[in-house]
Amino acid sequence: MVERPEILGSVFEVLGVPLSAKATVDAVTTDVTETRPLERRVDTVLRIGPSDGEDFLLAIESQSGRVAGKEASWAYYVAYLQAKFRLPVLLLVVCQDGPTAKWAAGPFDCGTRGWTALRVYPLVAGPDNLPVITDARTAAKNLALAVLSALAHARNPDCDAILEAISSALQELRETDPDTAEYFFDFLEVTLGKTPAGEKWNRIMSFVSYFPGRGTVRETAYLEGKTEGRAEGEAKGILSVLEVRGIPVTDSVRERITSCTDLDRMDTWLERSRTVERAEDLFDDEGNADKSIA
Predict the structure, then answer these.
(1) Residue 290: how many other CB atoms lie within 10 Å
(2) What 3-state DSSP class applies to 17?
(3) pLDDT per residue as tens, the chain (294 positions)
């Protein structure tokens, strides 16, 4: 995304946060895990470098409903990212309904006996402040806003039209800026997940030859498999999804994936790659005898 710094301007305008016209934008790892027991990941993290001030991080989290204890995770995200990168952090929570958005706005306090050790004020985007963008030209001009609109309006009957507009915009953008188009494509696949809107997005993509080797889970394997063999294509698809989700892959896991020739097993790994917390979890329910694949 670094080549299109203006792409987030409309989003910050909606949120009421000033951002200079010139700014660099780059994606950073979404893994905010220090040790294995602390398996927490935010959906995406962007490093933004405005021309008129210091760099900062924007952590984006999609929230479909109120979840007990989530505010503690948000406080962790902000504190951990600031400590790790030594940069200010803003947290954007994209909600799918008004009550969730009202709750997500906080503020959320960490403290006791009248003292506050940490207070989190998330930026909140939802159906009430994100427009419904169903026109492909409008989506192309405000791509980040359209993508967040798809998340916020995922339960809205208009969501299908939003996704169609984004699809058209991405097809046009990939001709001049494939990296940014690929980023938004993968972001939507991961954040929409297995929701009805996510299923719609995957159906749309099944008819579009997007980014061979970096597209949807099943389409990646299929497209790569045409020229490189189905197994190799599926292996690339699995590793691609894990990479997009910010999940570390050890050499042993990579070797196990790339050396496998059992297509049914790889189909299972492809599905699991979208939801697992650790790469090793791909192999759950497999016997010890299966753990070395020649």
Answers:
(1) 13
(2) coil
(3) 444 545 677 888 888 887 776 777 777 765 554 433 333 467 788 888 887 888 999 999 999 899 988 988 999 999 989 998 999 999 999 999 999 999 999 999 988 888 999 999 999 999 999 999 999 999 999 999 999 999 999 999 989 999 999 999 998 888 888 888 888 888 888 888 888 998 888 888 766 544 434 344 444 444 444 434 567 777 888 888 888 788 899 999 999 999 888 878 888 898 888 888 899 999 987 654 344 433
Both tokens assigned to 94: 């994209």
Name the 3-class secondary structure at 62: strand
- Residue 270 makes CB contacts below 8 A (sequence gap 6+) with 217, 218, 221, 234, 237, 238, 241
Contacts of 119 (CB under 8 A, 6+ apart): 106, 107, 108, 109, 110
**Angle formed at CA 189 by CA 131 and CA 185, multiple of 5 degrees:** 75
Instruction: Tell me the domain boundaries of the chain.
Output: 5-205, 218-290
Model-wide pTM > 0.90: no
